[in-house]
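Q: Can I see a sequence and its folded structure?
A: Here is a first one.
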Amino acid sequence: MPDDNSTQEVGSSATEEDSGPELVKPPLPPCDPSTVDTQSVGEQRMESDVRNIKDRLKSAEKWMIFLTAAIVLVGILQFEAALLQWNAMKGQLEEMRQGGGTAANQLWQAIGNMNWMARTADGSLHQTREAMETSKRESEISLTASVEESRLDLRAWIVLEPLVPVLAVPEAPPQGVPSPYRYELVLENVGKTPAYHVKVMMIQLLGFRGRLENSSTQIANTQDMMLMGKFKNGPSPDEIKKEFPTVISPNARRTTSIFFFLPGRPNDPNSRALENYEVGRIDYEDVFHVKHWRKFCLFVKDSAGTLEDCSYGNDEDHNPEIHPQSPASKPN
């Protein structure tokens, strides 16, 4: 067929053009049939290429859309995952915060409980200490009372027995001569333990009737100052000290003699005659090394030689082993 031949010729010519040097052919005339066929084939090929390109572009667009959609989907999924993770982290943070608050509250409650327990223990310890102190004080008081009672019960206790006058000269003395009387000064230890370092000091004084026995100051000065050798110009120790055994056993009696003279008219209440006084003190120490004393003041009451205690100066020490202000009391 002429068309096929022409097509083959055109193809062969094209092949030849591709393989060899480019040859310029004169354009065919418009009305040439070969020219028309060639143009229609080129247009077809162009259209085919355009369609292929369009198909490829559509395919590429589809792929781009798919990939974009996939990327967007992946981004959305990642955002959702990130959002979920953020929510989870936020929840964990909130839980941690709540847990931390709960732990802090529990810690403060534990600290409060420990403080309460410490205060309770301190209060209990304080109460226990107070109870122990009270018990200790009561025990000490009881022990001290027992010791004091024991000392009081076991101490030496020297008493002075009443003095009985004995006329020293049986026959009546001449008119105006005082009658001498002798008295037995008897000391007895009525305690349960010996009395040590016994010392008896006394002195005879002359004074107007009713004055010396009522003068507490003069009697106190005599007993606490003169007899203790505190006066510079006072009597010598030999003049005031009576010899006694330095130790007197329990229930033992020791005796010494003293003499009184009865000057003037002791039976006359209006008489201003001088009276004879015996002022003295007895000092001793018990087995517990506690010092004690006994004071006495006596004067002649009448012509029969009756002795009477002065208004002052007849007392004994307070028991130092009990309390300085506790009055002494003779044991039964």
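Q: Show me another, different protein.
A: A second, unrelated one:
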Amino acid sequence: MKLDLISRNELAHLGTSPRVETITYEHSRMPTGQRAFISRFDGRWKILRTVGQFFSYWYGEFVSPEEARDALEAEVAQYPR
């Protein structure tokens, strides 16, 4: 199971965060309207989950976007089909 890449290397302004390099993912197993953003802050990659216009918090500290994506895929794998 892989997450679907929506966009890569866009500069996004998400909530109160500064504009940062961001990779956006969706997956059919995520609830409708939910997305995940992976962004770099101070050399570390973090994940942000959104549902519609509601934002969670940035979490994790990953050395690469691939490591963050793998962690996100592991989370999504736990969702019921």
